[in-house]
Amino acid sequence: MMKMIKNRPLIIGVILSALVLSACKKEEKKAADKTADRLTASPEGNAPDSVNLAAEEPAFQPETADETTAEKLKLYLRDYLKADLPSLEASDRKFSFYAIDLNNDKKDEYFISLSGRGFCGSGGCTFLLLDNNLKLINRFTVMRGPVFRSSSVTDGWNDLILKGSNNKYIHLKWDAKAGKYPSNPSVVKETDIAPAGHDFIMWDDDFSRAKPFTF
After folding, report:
1. DSSP-derived 3-state class of residue 191
2. What are all long-range contacts of 123-129, with beta carbons under 8 Å and residues at least 24 apart?
């Protein structure tokens, strides 16, 4: 009996150690379960922001993503290109747009890039510029992004700047007599003058990503 009493502190110590170890294991399991939940139960099936499983793609520029505007442009394109539609597969009927004011009248023009194979070649793609009433201003040939809306203005319209060859640039200036920009950028003389840092950039996947649509 005396031996059991003497060993009682040792027995109690063993029991307490076992209880502490059990509690620690439960906490570790809870932490592991929470990590698993973060990886598998995030909204819309995507990994949460705090878990860097893969680099996220940049969001679409707001000037390119309005669904109501996109629907209006789809109808316009189906009518404008109705002669070409029978020769186009559905997967080739692609476009993106920017709603952007180019003449400071507080109304957006609609700048459209047609990117299906029927509208693109080695030199670039077809772009359209419409006024706020969906009237055609320009049909550009062999153009490619990025396109910059320059802060420089010619006859009330912002210049457009494209990348040329060998670190040169193409400046498209409004032609008041013709009522449009030069339609073929490839014939415009290149210059060393680059866009300014505050010029608005369009169709650049790193800085200004346009939402794609089909018509």
Report:
1. strand
2. 123/186, 124/185, 128/80, 129/102, 129/180, 129/181
**3-class SS at 86?**
helix
Helix, strand, coil percentages (3-state) for the chain, rounded to 5, are 30, 30, 40
**pTM higher than 0.85:** no
Q: 158, 145 in Cβ contact below 8 A?
A: no
Q: Which residues of the chain are modeled with pLDDT < 70?
A: 1-57
- Sheet of 147-154: strand order equals 190-191, 169-172, 157-163, 147-154, 200-202
Q: Locate 98 and state its tokens.
A: 């920017």
Chain segment 99-158, per-residue pLDDT in tens: 999 999 999 999 999 998 889 988 899 999 999 999 999 999 999 999 999 999 999 999
Phi-psi region of 45 (alpha: psi -120 to 50; beta: other; left: phi over 0): left
The answer to whether 73 touches 95, Cβ cutoff 8 Å, is: yes
Residue type, 158: N
193: Cβ–Cβ under 8 A, 6 or more apart, which residues?
169, 171
Q: Which of 177, 181, 109 is nearest to 138 (CA)?
A: 181
CA distance 152 to 171: 10
